[in-house]
Amino acid sequence: MHPTSTARLPAPARAGRSHLEEHAIRALWLACALVAVLAVGFILAFLVVYGLPAFAEIGVLEVLLGDSWSPTATPPAFGILPLAVGTLLVTLGAMLFAVPLSVATAIYLGELAPPRVRNLVRPAIELLAGIPSVVFGFFGLIVLVEWLRVSFAVPSGESVLAGSLLLGVMTLPTIISVSEDAISSVPREFREGSLALGATRWQTIRRVVVPSALPGVTAAIILGMGRAIGETMAVMMVTGNAAVIPSPITDVLSPVRTLTGTLGIEMGEVAIGSLHYHALFAVATVLLVITLAVNLGASAILRRLNASATGRGSPSRLAAVLGRPRAGMAVPVLAAVLAAAVAHSVGGLLPALAVFAAGLLLLAAVPRLSRNQAEKAAFLLLYLAVAAVVAILAIILLDIVSKGLPALSWEFLTGSPRDLGRAGGIFPAIVGTLCLVAGAIALALPLGVGAAIHLAEYRRENRLTRLIRSGVDLLNGTPSIVFGLFGFTFFVLYLEFGVSMLAGQVTLGLMVLPTIIRTTEEALRQVPQGLREGSLALGATQWQTVRRVVLPPAAPGILTGTILSVGRAAGETAPILFTAAVFSQRHLPSSLLDPVMALPYHLFVLATNVPGAQQNTYGTALVLILLVGAVYAVTIAVRARYRAAGGAPG
Amino acid sequence: MTGTPAPGTIIETRGLDLWYGPCQALKEITILIPANRVTALIGPSGCGKSTLLRCFNRMNDLVPDCRVAGLALYHGADINAPGYDVVELRKRVGMVFQKPNPFPKSIYENVAYGPRIHGERDRATLDAVVERSLRSAALWDEVEDRLQEPALGLSGGQQQRLCIARTLAVEPDVILMDEPCSALDPIATAKIENLIDDLKKRYTVIIVTHNMQQAARVSEFTGFMYLGELVEYGETLQVFERPAERLTENYITGRFG
Ligand SMILES: Nc1ncnc2c1ncn2[C@@H]1O[C@H](COP(=O)(O)OP(=O)(O)O)[C@@H](O)[C@H]1O
Ligand SMILES: [Mg+2]
User: Fold this and answer.
1) Is B211 helix (H, G, I), strand (E, B) or coil?
2) Nearest ligand atom owner, CA of B18
3) Mean pLDDT computed over every residue of chain B
């Protein structure tokens, strides 16, 4: 056969139109991704620009290190230090409380729990993650603060301790779920290898499973920390909000005010354009920088741990550290000293000595245990931790359900509030929340899915993709009150939307955008590469492949992300605090530029500003929980169904 | 089927049945494993070799709905009896897995892991154990100057020898090996086979393999399994050259199916 005899096929002809279409679609997704990045850049720049006058006029050091925050005094003082210390103390306290409990629970769920228990506890904890922070705040205010007041016989229970405990509870679900994922994905071979050497289950957990899961557990803790630092409503409701540095610093019964709390309290009352106004932006900038640093630190730790665990790279020292749980004594001793210090400032010398002695005794006893005793003791502690977590959840839910149920009635659900919400119903708030959520999703879903398609399908790992991804991460770590601040200044004031449904929708939309992008990208990435290659090899265009082959199996995952976003948008208070929400309204909103009532905001005002409305407050909290809970239940059901169908990711 | 080799039985099963949920994976297995010899288990894949091996150190405990009936004895004691110390059993009956599974720790820490969990704290002793074990596993020369590097950076063959060293460091009586060479290239395989030859002087080795040449090369006794049953068991030479069962002969001569 002559080589020339192969008939020259015409160059693959592309119909001009479909070619054009491919390009247009590609450009569309890129545009979506760019919008996401631009939004981040814009928000950041905006905060900094608005914060600058404060730094310029007062001085950077005075703002950062000034130890007094009293904006309305003469002369006013704008030192952020007490606020930053407040945030730090409350976060630290929350972590001290939440980390041991949640890691223990994660270990229990991942390693010890019978499957039936696991399948019950896991969704329960996910559900807990969905409880809006304002509901926690309400519970904290009514139950926790009161309990502290009585048990420590102090004038008010609003304190560092209250904030820490409440925040700790709120971060439990995050830390538990992410750690448990990490623990469950430790390869079974590691466990077998260790058990086959005659290690006990506890030794295997402590020396092999937990160290292998360490990157994931670290990430979980840092995620929880990020949530704690950025949390506004709950903290604001239970910490007393006095801008003081506790003295001594270990006095956990002192009130404090956090960075977020300051924004939440003062943004609504400040004179626009004043120095105070700009100082609040300086606070927001500091808050953002802290969350940023936490997130960056997390990724750095993760990268290094990952590299050393997989043997890539050369961080041999880290690997050695990972393998050698030395330095073991320092941590417990430090913990004992800290506990003693806290006991001292709360209760005096005697309790302090008792706590310290107990700690030392424990330390002395541990190395003497035989390994079977050690295993029994360790498991006992794990069970206790799990019991504590379950009890906390049960107490919160039972309290709200039992006191909220009597308030629920047809009139409550369909009527308008009367007598400042003490009587009447919450119908306008329900409608308002639904409108806000619908608008936010309508905005964020197309944009988010588009950006994710760009990232996952049209990726060429280059600087732009990395930029987009870090932008998304940044947006994801941004505290919701910062969105509120931005929305207020930009949409409400600058674009002159006024306090309106539209401003609230856009603000909430921005807030849930990263969730949608991330879950969608994740879902797309789980579609096997073989499917794409199969389709492309048949001559399908990229868009045809994405639309017909990649998106269908990824749909449940995208749906999950969307529903989660719905839940989050429905429960958030901080972003709508100044952008959309009003406390009472005679008519339902008739245009996008009308303000709206919203469930979380209604609950917040009832709980903090309307005495004698307890029954309706509980009722509102219950409705909010039911709404969000229903959303999460649907998510879990969707996922379970697709998993059972052996289907796609979710 | 029973084979009763040499005196000094170290592991023994009598009428051992095992189910994974509703599926019976082992049927009436009766086998006597002689001490300080190499015993090979051969048979087509899925016939239950790994399952049987994992009965000897109760690794099947980890499989959720796995059920055992019949007797499995180690030094004459019923290892499935309530109250039997399974941790102690696994310490004395070590195991090397099909896929090398070093921990994500340094080479040193991998080998030191066993002694550490069994209470050894003294650094000098640990150093000595690590060196001795790595030497016994014919790995010392290759890793001597990189002990603190991550074990996962080693090649597959090296990882597997590290896992053997890790097992030796616990000083077991018995070493169970589940297709230890199946993931390795021929050179690494040859190294491990030589190693097994050395090991049999001091340890009882039970090796699962689907490679008949390997069984013939390294073992003194061979059991042939088929569909969950132990079809034939005896001295390797005899099993390979004068098999008593038709099935065995077919399998060994490659006329199978
Ligand atoms: N964890 C398990 N759960 C259920 N069935 C299993 C499990 N492990 C093995 N089996 C089944 O038991 C039989 C024997 O498996 P195995 O012992 O692994 O065979 P071999 O090692 O000889 O290839 C096979 O049919 C296999 O499918
Ligand atoms: Mg096998």
Assistant:
1) coil
2) 1
3) 90
Residue A453 structure tokens: 């398609």
Query: What single letter denotes the amino acid at residue A446?
Result: P
Mean pLDDT value across residues B156-171:
92
Q: Is B81 left (phi over 0), alpha (psi -120 to 50) or beta?
A: beta
Q: What percent of chain B has pLDDT over 70?
A: 96
What is the spatial distance between Cα B121 and Cα A483, in angstroms, rounded to a whole number?
54
Alpha-carbon gap, residue A68 to A83, rounded angstroms: 9
| Pairing outcome for strands B38-42 and B221-226 | parallel
ipTM score of the complex?
A: 0.78
Q: Which residue is associated with the tokens 């290892």?
A: B79
pLDDT band at A21 (very low <50, low <70, confident <90, very high): confident
Measured from the alpha carbon of residue B178, the closest ligand is 2
Centre of ligand 2 to C-alpha B178, Å, is 7
Tell me the DSSP string of A378-410.
HHHHHHHHHHHHHHHHHHHHHHHHHHHGGG--H
Calculate how far, in angstroms, residue B48's C-alpha sits from the geometric centre of ligand 1.
Answer: 6
Please report the atom of ligand 1 found closest to the CA of residue B225.
Answer: 22
CA atoms of A488 and A492, how far apart (whole Å): 5
| pLDDT above 60: residue B112 | yes
Rounded to 5°, angle at Cα A518 from A516 and A520: 65
Q: Is the pLDDT of residue A620 over 70?
A: yes
What pLDDT score does A540 carry? 72
Give the model's pLDDT for residue A369.
76
Q: Which amino acid is at B112?
A: A
Cα–Cα distance, A154 to A164 (Å, whole number) = 17
Asked if the Cβ–Cβ distance from A196 to B118 is below 8 Å, we say no
Residue pair A487/A564 in contact by the 8 Å Cβ criterion: no
Could you tell me which chain B residue has the CA closest to the CA of A193? B101
- Residue range B175-216, pLDDT digits in tens: 999 999 887 888 888 988 998 988 888 899 999 998 888 999
Chain A contacts in chain B segment 169-188 (CB below 8 A): 170
Buried b / exposed e along A615-643 (16+ C-beta atoms within 10 A): ebbbbbbbbbbebbbebbbebbebbeebe
Of the candidates A75, A305, A333, the one whose C-alpha atom is nearest the C-alpha of residue A182 is: A305
H-run or E-run covering B194: helix B186-199
pLDDT higher than threshold 50 for residue A326: no
H or E, element range at B74 = strand B66-74
Confidence (pTM): 0.80
Q: Which residue of B has its CA nearest to A208?
A: B103
Q: Which residues line ligand 1 (CB under 6 A)?
A: B 20, 23, 25, 43, 45-51, 63
Touching check for A187 and chain B: CB below 8 Å?
Answer: yes
